Amino acid sequence: xxxxxxxxxxxxxxxxxxxxxxxxxxxxxxxxxxxxxxxxxxxxxxxxxxxxxxxxxxxxxxxxxxxxxxxxxxxxxxxxxxxxxxxxxxxxxxxxxxxxxxxxxxxxxxxxx
Amino acid sequence: xxxxxxxxxxxxxxxxxxxxxxxxxxxxxxxxxxxxxxxxxxxxxxxxxxxxxxxxxxxxxxxxxxxxxxxxxxxxxxxxxxxxxxxxxxxxxxxxxxxxxxxxxxxxxxxx
Lengths: 113, 112
Fold this sequence. Notes:
- The structure holds 2 protein chains of 2 kinds.
- Chain A is mostly beta strands.
- Chain A has strands at 4-7, 10-13, 19-25, 32-38, 45-51, 57-58, 67-73, 76-81, 90-98, 101-104, 108-112.
- Chain B is mostly beta strands.
- Chains A and B meet through β4, β5, β9 and β10 of A and loops of B.
């Protein structure tokens, strides 16, 4: 149990376009989901916390208008990178809360050309 | 959330026990110690957590000192597949708003 999936697993997009990443909890309902970003050879950085049916809470320094988060159902949260630029190229990882624990998705590799 | 200090890297021989230390000298009484690991280009995997008692599961053992200022994760019989970055994180319970904030972790290399 406690499986979290992400789609797509990797994506290449052109500079200036928007990209949507989906995060799903497959066998449980998640009232809270988290989005992280990881640059090469660095640790995970928490970007935002999303709660089902309400606005996401962004960490300091993360642009909420650039990284749009929607958590419309108990099993799905989406992260949209708007007007992507090469510096947004990164590994994006979501995590879902089940009870007192947190389970991670496999990550999405975004490359902006 | 309290910060943790871990060695940057460690080596371990296959089949031997891997002991990964973590210092969390500023831990608060209501903060748990969590361990996750990340194999290259994958999402983090939960290993174990504890509050003050030692814990054991099918993956590892967690030894927390009596003053709770440090802990050790023990992989009893390391295999090549245990090669990963191991993160020690302290946080309050999620119902209290606790978040998993990752530090730099320890890069464990298990060698044949």
